[in-house]
Amino acid sequence: MTIQKRNNVQFIGNGEKTIILAHGFASNQQMWKYILPTLSQEYRVMLFDYVGSGASDKTAYSTEKYATLHGYAQDVIDMIDEWNLTNVVFVGHSISAMIGMLASFERPNAFSTLIMIGASPCYLNDGDYIGGFTKEAVEGLFQMMELNFTGWASHLAPIVTDPERTPKATSQVEQTFKSNDAAIAREFATATFLADHRADLERIKVPTVLIQSKDDAIVPVQVSEYLHQHIAGSELVFLNIKGHYPQISQPEETVAILQRYI
Amino acid sequence: MQSSYSHLPCGFLSLNQAGVITYANPFFCEWIERVADEVEGQHLEQLLSVSNKFVFYSYFYPMLHINGIVQEFVLHFETSEEQQLPAILSAIRLGQGEQEHIDCIIMPMTQRMKYERELRDMTKQLECANAEKDKAFQELQKLHQEIEQRQQELITLTNTDKLTSLYNRRYIEEHLTRRMQQAKPDSFSVLLVDIDFFKKVNDTYGHQIGDYVLIKVARLMREHIGEDGIVARYGGEEFLILLSSANQQQSMKIGKALNTIIREYLFEYVQHITISVGIATYREGDSDTMIVNRADRALYYSKEHGRDCVTHFRDIEGVLHP
Question: Where in the numbering of this chain does the GGDEF domain appear (chain B) (predicted)?
Answer without folding.
Answer: 186-315
